Prior knowledge:
The protein is an all-alpha fold. The protein is 73% helix and 0% strand.
Amino acid sequence: MSSTKDLEKKFPEVTVSVVPLSESQISLSSVESGTPAPENSEDEAPDGGWMAWRQVLAGHFINAISCGYSATFGIYQLYYTEALNLPAAQIAWIGSFQIFLNSLVWSLCVLIGTFMTSIATEYYQIFLAQGVLQGLGLGLMYMPSTAVVSSYFKRKRSLALTIASAGTGTGSIVFPATVQFLIPKIGFAWAVRCSGFVAVVICVIGCMLLKPRLAPRKGVAIIDVSAFKEVPYVLFAVGTWFFYWALYFGFFYINSFALTLPGEVFTPTSTVNLLLVTNAVSTPARVFIGWIADNHLGPLNTYILSVASLAVTLFGWTAVTTAPGMYAWAAAFGITNGAAQAAYVGAIAGMTKDPKRIGIRIGMIFGIISFAVLAGPPTAGSIIDATGGTYRWAQVWGGSVELLSVVILLVARWFVARGLWVIV
C-alpha cells in the first residue's frame, strides 16, 4: 500500500492529511453508514429530549393496562362475591393469580382474556379468562417498557420511571369507572367488553410509541446469578416480597369493607368512588415521589419511607367506621401505595450498575414477588372468612407484614450505605 508521502509525490496538488476522529464523530459515522455504534454506556443516556420522553409516555400507557387493570380487581371482587355467592378467599385467587402471571403474547392475551371474561358464567371460566390469560398478557407488556424507559435516563431515571408508573393510576381510574357504571345500564358482559375496547386503543398507542435505545445483548442469561451473591440485592428482594404480599389486600377489599360500615352508608355502586379516589391521588403521588427520589432523598431511602407510611396506613384502617373516614383512608392508601410502588422500580434500578441488566434484575424480583401477590389476597380473604367476615385482623396482618418489609429493607440499606443521612 502506498504511503502518504508517495501519494503526495504522484499528486502534488492534493494534500493528504490524517485527522484523528473524536468519539462523537465515530459514533455519527457509524450511524450514518448503518453500522451499529459502539455499545452505549449508562453515561450516554440522553436523559431528556422528545424520544426519551416519548418512551415515558409509552410506559405510562402500558402501565395503565398492565398494572392499572390489575389494581381495579376490587370491582370484580365485589361483583363476583354477590353474583356467584362465593367466599371472598376463593374469589381473590382470580385476581391474585392474574397478578402472579403479570410478574412472570401481551396485547392479544389481554384482549382475548377481557372479551372471554365478558361471556364467562362459571368460576373456572372467569379464572382462566381473567386470571390466567389476562395475567400472561399484562406481565409480558410490563417488563419491556420498564427496561426501555430506564435506558433513556440516568440522572432523571426515578422521575421518568415514576411518571411511567403513574399510568397505573390512569388505568385504575378508567377501567373501574367503565365497568362499575356501565353494569347497571348494559349489563356485566357488555361493560367488560367496553373496557376491552378501551384497552385496544391504549395497547396500540403504547406499541407505536415504544422504541428501544440499546441493542439486545447477545448471550445474556435470563437470570443474573451474580445478583444473588450481592447481600443488598437479596435482602431487597426479600423485603419487597413482604411488601407485595400485603399490598393488594387494600385494592381487593376496599369495596367490600365499605359495605360493612354501620348505617349502610355505601352501596355496591357507590363503593367504586373509593377505588377512584385511591387511584386518582396515587397518580400525582407517584410523580412527586420520583422527584423527591431524584433530587433529595435517593430512590432507596424514598422506597423504605414509602413502605413505612403504607404500614401506618394499613394499621389506621382498623379505626375507620364512617363514610368520611373511609374516603380519607382511601386517599391515604392511594398516596402511600402509589409512592411505594413507584419508588420500588427506581430503587432497584439505582442499585444496578449496568443499565442493560436493569430489566433482568427487575424481572428477577418480579419472578420472586409473583408468589407474594399470588398468596396475599387469598391469605387476607382466609383471615376475613375465619373471623366471621370481620376485617380487623386482616388489617392488622397487612400492617404487620409491611412493617416487617421495612425492617428487612433497612438492613439492605445498611449494607449499601452505613451512614444515616447518606442519599442512596
